[in-house]
Amino acid sequence: GDPRGLRRAGPGDAGGMPGCRLTLELPDSAQRCFHQELESGTKFTLDYQVISGGHYDVDCYVEDPNGKTIYQETKKQYDSFTHHTDLKGVYTFCFSNEFSTFSHKIVYFDFQVGDEPPILPDMNNRVTALTQLESACVTIHEMLNAVIDSQTHYRLREAQDRSRAEELNGRVSYWSVGETFILFVVSIGQVMLLKSFFTEKRPISGRAGT
Q: Is the overall model pTM greater than 0.70, yes or no?
């Protein structure tokens, strides 16, 4: 495996929703693992999608600090997994392409830890209702988050569709070259065959004896 550490995060992380978004290349017969130290009672979400390569599938599993597998899927094109931690320690999630012997994959994943903090100070502890301006700010913020998620989704779809189109174009090009070569060989064969039909066979004349 290729272990890589993400930054330490916990429920009280002041940075909001810590985590990581990466696009990684997964060679054939390879596995890449990532590690994240988490506090007990922390929520995390892992979303992933195969952008290109082979049948656009990958194996994925998540282990807790004791090495117990809490999530495992094989040959998935995309999936989402949410979990609340019971133990404090290092959690590991891995992507595996070990079942493929000739095609490498490109995988996008989004790993988020904790819940998004409120956009307004003491928003969760307020007794009074939000003002019209505050409500509008919250609504706009939620809509912007939805736009960001939609843009990410469409970018991934566009990248996957482009990869499929390039793969199809390559196959069409190879078939075109092959058909051209076969047509050339058949044409030469037909010419040689027709030429043999019209070739005159002249008899060999011997010298007369005296």
A: no
pLDDT tens digits along 77-91: 999 999 999 999 999
Q: Which domain holds residue 107?
A: 4-117
Sign of CA dihedral 50, 51, 53, 56: positive
- Taking the C-alpha atoms of residue 110 and residue 148, their distance in angstroms, rounded to an integer, is 13
Same domain, 16 and 98: yes
Question: What is the rounded distance in angstroms from the CA atom of residue 46 to the CA atom of residue 154?
Answer: 18
DSSP string, 61-123: EEE-TTS-EEEEEEEESEEEEEEE-SS-EEEEEEEE-TT-SS--EEEEEEEEESPPPPSSTT-
Q: How many domains does the chain have?
A: 2
Mean pLDDT of successive 10-residue segments in the chain (210 residues)?
40 47 90 93 93 91 96 93 94 92 89 75 62 79 80 80 83 89 90 79 55
